[in-house]
Design brief:
Length: 176
């Protein structure tokens, strides 16, 4: 007899600190219990070295209404990190066919969620079609503009801020 089919949109892989899959769990339970899972984040940068910054909808379970310097999300069951970021870019901002550059591995242990992730970068000039269920609005901004927003107390996703700090170091060291 075959095992029952798992709805991959509602379940995710729970992983250990070495990124080994332990079991699958409902996304809601993962959020509630802050279980370690896989995620991807991607910076979108234009030719002026400005980053795409967006505001998340207020219906998001984690960090509703916060600003974010990355797009991304959870990696599905059996999905590769690379396939996950391609899917997220298509779903959230309708970007496809772009060169996706891996930047670094990342682990986030926050108060609202915990994940092991991979951070990517995509270069893009021009408009994007934003997914209305996830993004209120967004635009390209300079690093200085982003830092001003942070200094003024605008709420940013803390995982995005951590990777933003690493990206700034990479830019300073001409590693982009």
């Amino acid at each position: 007899m075959n095992a029952p089919e798992i709805d991959k949109t509602e379940y995710l892989d729970v992983v250990d600190s070495n990124d080994k899959v332990l079991y699958q769990e409902k996304r809601v339970i993962i959020d509630e219990k802050k279980l370690l899972h896989r995620s991807v984040l991607c910076f979108i940068i234009n030719s002026k070295k400005e980053l795409f910054v967006h505001q998340r909808t207020f219906t998001k379970r984690v960090f509703p209404g916060y600003f974010d310097v990355t797009v991304g999300g959870a990696v599905g069951i059996g999905e590769s990190y690379y396939d996950a970021i391609k899917r997220e870019l298509l779903e959230e901002v309708e970007l496809f066919g772009k060169i996706i550059r891996f930047l670094f591995d990342f682990r986030y242990d926050g108060e609202q969620c915990k994940f092991i992730g991979k951070i990517f970068l995509v270069k893009h000039d021009g408009k994007m079609k934003l997914q209305k269920e996830e993004i209120i609005d967004g635009r390209f901004m300079s690093i200085a503009e982003i830092e001003q927003m942070i200094a003024k107390g605008k709420k940013f996703c803390p995982d995005g801020l951590e990777v933003f700090e690493k990206l700034k170091i990479m830019i300073k060291e001409n590693k982009l």
